[in-house]
């Protein structure tokens, strides 16, 4: 169950890629956003490359404002729901982990615990839940709120939410189900543990109606960048996503979260850190750069302004693309993605770019490498060997081509260097990540055998 | 798209069957409750027999009281969550409809709309949602309530819930997605319709982030027996389950709901009625009766008292099995399943049975037939030809054997009589049921073509 010094790899599966113009540059003539065969192909491609995890990001709600910009691509506007999508993918794959996002701000803990426990059974131990608090007012409005609750309240709710879900997953002990046809005992009531939770946000009294998941507990992912987000990860997560774009920042993040983990009395190696990593592969560096430029040129001013405006939490629609962004329209602080907001503020204040230059250069965090397999593997080796992360969340600007090229060119290079597995050695996502299967909180320590 | 006078068939897929002792009598030595391969086999078996629908019942919560009885079987205590289970089954089947229960009392409309829209895409138009208001206090407690809200309030909430879900499913018009790579128009904002709902129970402002489902709207099922339940079915459902156990009652029910449908200004034939039907097949009538007796004898007094006590909403645990049930312990009215409650009260008052006789004879509604393929098909033909229903919800006391025998012996007999399809003629569940694909509420009537 121990990982032998290899890195972990996850694939962020956004329809036609992370880049807002990814879909305009695919070979496909038809929409793949809701096409289960297409997603099965992506997951199988990543599985053939022995990825640890296939990952679906999510926001529970479509934008209803600025449709001139948001109607210009599928991402987060037209997508299959993560738990149903991953359950279907469980039947087209054998080994790869299947992770998806669900928001603690807009789900009931009982329903969510069931969905991921069920996915873990259906996939034979490959489920992961990415715990997010959501960062969009438009999602909040779909659930009866006027806007998003404040950041601190969202994280307090998330913490309580995760506690409840974990307790529910432990309802049945591993050996509770007897299936004793002779006596009629289906399960042992002494190994069945209802909860009676009453907290600041939730009252949950009851028991989960599903046997303990194959992984004991599905893998918990966290991706918050703020202090509250890091604390939640350090206390409860098995896996955390980071999106720093320099080695130094990533290294500082790695050291920071591991120190936090230790402060919660956990072994720091039980929280795995995956760094967001956006590779563009080419036969040569020039080819890779050319691919990137082609994509950037497909970004219209409307979309460019909207992408920057969203993360800056400011309306840029009236501005001249060829002038610098005026400083007085920048809000005092962020309520959504602190990390992206600060990155933009920094670029605006220190680089004196025009708005057009800003949208052409700005990428939401993540290390970007344009180059050959060697160029890409060099950076991955530097980060991994230098202990800035335990592996990478591969974020392809374009799909499916991004995973095809990464699998065919970069993975073999990593394997040649001994940095990446040649094959899976276990069957569950916890096995791939080198994480132990958690004992039930109710399990009695085994008595030493007599004699 | 019009059904040619054939009946519809659905399979109620409770782990090892509807009978509380079904699991004790299977060939299997290991638990199949969370085994996706087992459920895939059941669904494929029903699909080979050309069933319209594979159906998963559900309650969001396990019992935590009377575990001495509830630990004696898997049903509702250990089960895969319906939408994830059905999404996985969508990948192991091609044609059969996939229906599951989800409660309007304990879900958010936005989350539920997404889950079933996603299932409809994943299954290429085979999804159905069974709208229930739940009838268990133990479920209510898992969602922060002290007990179940009153019946009328639950149904008022259900009505509003269904309205919201249907409106969300219509977010995108059928031709909203353009996927125009040249111009960058992914969808047409004029064909994208957010809702702004404010009602007695919910405030939902937003838009569903998924293209219109292949069926336009997934099939809506309703199974309420009360006046409120029938009204909800008549106003909103495509399919309704009935559980009367005599032809006369079923016929009265059929006429009643169709009259209600007409009062809502709908064509009565747009609501299909499936009668609950529990067949036990044998080479001879004696063999079938023997099978049934074997099962009944496996019911322990603890389980027998609990099954009756639950539906009677009374605690029978202290009673002598060999005395009649005292009339003074019967509550004045039911808050859970009115139908079952009344059936029991009738049996107690008019048949003067002992408690043991009561649990041995009592079945939750549904027409039961023990006999040969001819015996079983005779009753089905009588009900169907006599317009007491449009088809049957086949409720096997034991699985998988129940569906195997029904498929191998009863289905061919129905086909011989011209009562049942030889093969699917369409691809969606709406096709199988003979229900038109609903137009989007926003669709403009086509202009007559010029010239
Ligand atoms: C790789 C990665 C994936 C993420 N996926 C999601 C997602 O699916 N849904 C979401 O709402 N937020 C997602 N986030 C955002 C984070 O959960 C978090 O909200 C954000 O980084 C802001 O951090 P903070 O909440 O601690 O301020 C993701 C972040 C990263 C780095
Ligand atoms: C075939 C059939 C399947 C049903 N499935 C469910 C179910 O999965 N979950 C549930 O809570 N109730 C289920 N019910 C119960 C009904 O939804 C309803 O609550 C019950 O018949 C009582 O009717 P009333 O609510 O109108 O009083 C089912 C009923 C029938 C006949």
Automatic annotation (TrEMBL), chains A, B:
Transmembrane segments: none annotated. CDD domains: Nitrilotriacetate_monoxgenase. One of its GO terms (molecular function) is oxidoreductase activity, acting on paired donors, with incorporation or reduction of molecular oxygen. It holds the Pfam family Bac_luciferase. FMN binds at residues 58, 101, 151, 155, 226. Coiled coil: none annotated. Keywords: Flavoprotein, FMN, Monooxygenase, Oxidoreductase. Residues 21-296 form the Luciferase-like domain. Belongs to the NtaA/SnaA/DszA monooxygenase family. PANTHER family: ALKANESULFONATE MONOOXYGENASE-RELATED (PTHR30011), C2H2 FINGER DOMAIN TRANSCRIPTION FACTOR (EUROFUNG)-RELATED (PTHR30011:SF16). This is LLM class flavin-dependent oxidoreductase. It comes from Acuticoccus mangrovi. The lineage of its organism: Bacteria, Pseudomonadati, Pseudomonadota, Alphaproteobacteria, Hyphomicrobiales.
């Amino acid at each position: 169950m121990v990982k032998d010094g290899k890195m972990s790899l996850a694939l962020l599966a956004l329809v036609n890629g992370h880049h807002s113009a990814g879909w305009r540059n695919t070979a496909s003539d038809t929409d793949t956003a809701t096409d289960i065969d297409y997603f099965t192909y992506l997951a199988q491609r990543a599985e053939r490359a022995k990825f640890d995890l296939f990952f679906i990001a999510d926001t529970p709600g479509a934008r209803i404002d600025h449709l001139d910009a948001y109607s210009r691509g599928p991402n987060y506007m037209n997508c299959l729901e993560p738990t149903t999508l991953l359950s279907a993918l469980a039947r087209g794959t054998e080994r790869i982990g299947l992770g998806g996002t669900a928001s603690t701000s807009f789900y009931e803990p009982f329903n969510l615990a069931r969905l991921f426990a069920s996915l873990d059974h259906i996939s034979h131990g490959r489920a992961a839940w990415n715990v997010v608090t959501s960062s969009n007012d438009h999602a909040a409005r779909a659930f009866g709120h006027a806007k998003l609750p404040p950041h601190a309240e969202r994280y307090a709710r998330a913490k309580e939410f995760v506690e409840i879900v974990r307790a529910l997953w432990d309802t049945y002990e591993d050996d509770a189900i007897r299936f004793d046809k002779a006596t009629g005992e289906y399960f042992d009531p002494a190994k069945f543990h209802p909860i009676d939770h009453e907290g600041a946000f939730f009252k949950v009294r009851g028991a989960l109606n599903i046997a303990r998941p194959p992984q004991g507990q599905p893998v918990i992912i966290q991706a918050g960048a703020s202090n509250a987000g890091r604390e939640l990860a350090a206390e409860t997560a098995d896996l955390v996503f980071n999106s720093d774009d320099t080695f130094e920042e990533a290294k500082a993040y790695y050291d920071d979260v591991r120190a936090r983990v230790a402060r919660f009395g956990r072994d720091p190696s039980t929280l795995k850190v995956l760094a967001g990593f956006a590779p563009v592969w080419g036969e040569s560096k020039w080819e890779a750069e050319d691919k990137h430029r082609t994509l950037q040129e497909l970004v219209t001013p409307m979309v460019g302004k909207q992408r920057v405006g969203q993360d800056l939490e400011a309306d840029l629609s009236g501005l001249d693309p060829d002038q610098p962004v005026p400083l007085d329209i920048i809000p005092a602080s962020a309520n959504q993605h602190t990390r992206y907001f600060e990155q933009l503020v920094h670029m605006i204040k220190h680089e004196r770019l025009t708005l057009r230059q800003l949208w052409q250069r700005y990428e939401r965090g993540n290390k970007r490498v344009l180059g050959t397999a060697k160029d890409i593997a060099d950076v991955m080796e530097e980060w991994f060997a230098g202990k800035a992360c335990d592996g990478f969340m591969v974020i392809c600007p374009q799909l499916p081509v991004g995973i095809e090229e990464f699998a065919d060119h970069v993975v073999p290079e990593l394997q040649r260097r001994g940095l990446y597995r040649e094959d899976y050695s276990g069957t569950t996502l916890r096995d791939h990540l080198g994480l132990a299967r958690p004992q039930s909180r109710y399990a009695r320590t085994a008595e030493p055998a007599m004699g």
